């Protein structure tokens, strides 16, 4: 409206672009991330494009085309982007258009126009079309054209893949503000809730997707995230669970209809079976039983069956166990104990499955919060986490200049020394063996950092000692009392559960002082006064300690710990 | 955001000593280098500190200052317009005629005011004019202006009502300049705001701008296309006559409703016509249109000129070629004529000479006594001699005749003449022009 030719402000959204599903999210005026439903009302938009006589379908409509029009339907193409033909696994595309080698990239041969001859469409072009549809949906919803996006990628996404995605997005007139890692986006989505408090924690993010699962251990220190370890399993995901159900129903079908062929041997029957199994799986995540119903499954025979959740969980037990294994494995990989973990965030569509969360609940100590719909009512929708996180990040940086974003994400800024050991004060006693170690700064805290704690003093006040130490976390294992022999005899009669309970050791996290750092004396503290201890660690590990009485008149004690001489060694 | 620790600190042991109450006894262990995830507000703060090399306290201060500034900006913004004392006396019942934007102090924003601005302006005005405050201050003004404020907010915060008001908000209109004014120059400066103001009624946003004299033909055409196909949301409900409530007669109500409807339609039509006229006028005055026409004309003419010039040249060339040809032919004819004349003359001369020579030869025959030796020649000899001389003459070409004539010239002696003739006849015989014995008289 105004006369000046001004650059319209960026409208940025968060996009979670997955192999199976994509979602788009925006941030409301109040800073709350919301996932946008597309024209069909889907918040999870299947990353599938289908072409019928030159008409393009996307999302759920395209997915239903997998049955009748599989050759012109492109699915599961995200992971092919930026790869060469040799390094891709085309298994997921078995029931859709098959990837082909085309020059240096990968393409699909589909009939995307009205002409009879199929044309070769590169995976980059497919991605562009998909992103363009997502962008249109978001623009329609927001009422203003979307120009930029933050896109989530798996942690092991290579620079080449990111570059390819960036080019594909640019072709869809979408400026990629930043690529952020999926697990970090999930943590951000939780931390950005108004009710969440800033705390130091270690989070395991289990991103259980349709075709692959990625797990990451993230240390969150003062709102800054560092990935400690990651694990990827390309053969574990929702499709594995679908497969279990498909096999189950196929067998049941064959039992009843011996004459009809195996529905898994006919492409169209297989596609129907897969679609319905997926629907059954989703229904079982919500209800205790679900109906399986396919018209003309094989040989023109309609098939209807019911399956309940316990049966399903029994069937898929193996797959569930591998999810748990993957997650516990990555904790070990990070060199941590399960007790170090503060929360587990289940992300991705497969996380809706209650059994997976319940298994995790059993495998990890009670103290850990598991954010999954089955275990925590306040959890967010796991399918939406990545998109929400991306939307929050988008709202944070959409005002930034492009250069600013680039500079901020530059390794110069992101590579930071992290504390190897925790820093804390000794309480109750100045003696290292008797005193109780209280952490001020956890291990893996990025520096520079500033942290303040208020510590109570002995009741009568007076002079107190602030003793700063480095602490090591140790796992204390307390074995239960050896069982009396009489009980041992009964063991065989008892249930396995009981047996486990009794054998279980008590494990707890204790702190051991590894190295005293400094001592400071605060004199003449009032009765019932409190001491404020502020620890400032600079980027080169110089520590400034300030200890003073809260509300006290005197200035308190300020001391400097010189930087260690061997900082360079830490880079190893 | 300090964490509270409930356990107490140890008592300072006796005999503890340190400089300035502080004793350093160790350094930190070597750090791990890790990649931070570049997401989240805390990371952005970290990046800001690291990039600008600020310490925590510096960064806190700078951020605090920036925040303070923002708040001040917010406050200073829109709502500092002075209030017109006449406006403060307004009666809320007459709300249809009140300028809602002026009441809220947004008269320089008008249709551009955002929802947020309206909200804030309302709050600010309420804080100042709340009747309770007035009462506390002891003034007895009543709450009529407060009601005006409420009414203004009611209208402006409802998008439908706001549009109705904006439709008839004359204060936002910009009067088109007169033809005279425009012709003095400044077309763009004068008409730009007119179109900008009219553009607020467009359903399609953004509205193309008038631009300046450097605008391309396409832009200008797009501009006028847009304005000739203008899709306006302007409506005139706001100026409706009040419909009496249903306690009065229904017919009366219906009558007024109908009247209102017709009035709206009429006003809408008038408005469309007015806009059309406006655009016509602008188009008429727009120098660019003339310029483009001229250019197009020049372009067309250029082609025509080129064509005509080419044709002309071709014609001239043809003419020239023709003339040249004609000249050549003429010259040729003349030279031929001259040649012919010369030839004729020579021929005549030759003929005359030959005649003369023949006469000489014949005379010589007569002088030579008709090749008769002795006395007067008999008649037969004369006849023979004359015949022979004639046949000889016919057999000789003019040159030989001339030579013969030269030989015979001055000769009067009959023998000599006969001898010459004889030699001549013998020469002719030996040249094969005559047969031996043909000349009987000379034999």
TrEMBL record, chain A:
GO terms for molecular function: ATP binding; ATP-dependent protein folding chaperone. One of its GO terms (cellular component) is nucleus. Residues 477-513 are annotated as: Disordered. Residues 489-505 have a biased composition (Acidic residues). Pfam families: HSP70. The keyword rRNA processing does not apply. InterPro entries: ATPase_NBD (IPR043129), Hsp_70_fam (IPR013126). Keywords: ATP-binding, Nucleotide-binding. Residues 477-488 have a biased composition (Basic and acidic residues). PANTHER family: HEAT SHOCK PROTEIN PDR13, HSC70CB, ISOFORM G-RELATED. This is Chaperone protein dnaK. It comes from Aulographum hederae CBS 113979.
UniProtKB/TrEMBL annotation, chain B:
CDD domains: DnaJ, zuotin_NTD. One of its GO terms (biological process) is regulation of translational fidelity. Its main location: cytoplasm. It is found in: Cytoplasm. Residues 55-72, 295-350 have a biased composition (Basic and acidic residues). Keywords: Chaperone, Cytoplasm. Residues 46-92, 239-276, 295-359 are annotated as: Disordered. Signal peptide: none annotated. Transmembrane segments: none annotated. One of its GO terms (molecular function) is ribosome binding. This is DnaJ-domain-containing protein. The lineage of its organism: Eukaryota, Fungi, Dikarya, Ascomycota, Pezizomycotina.
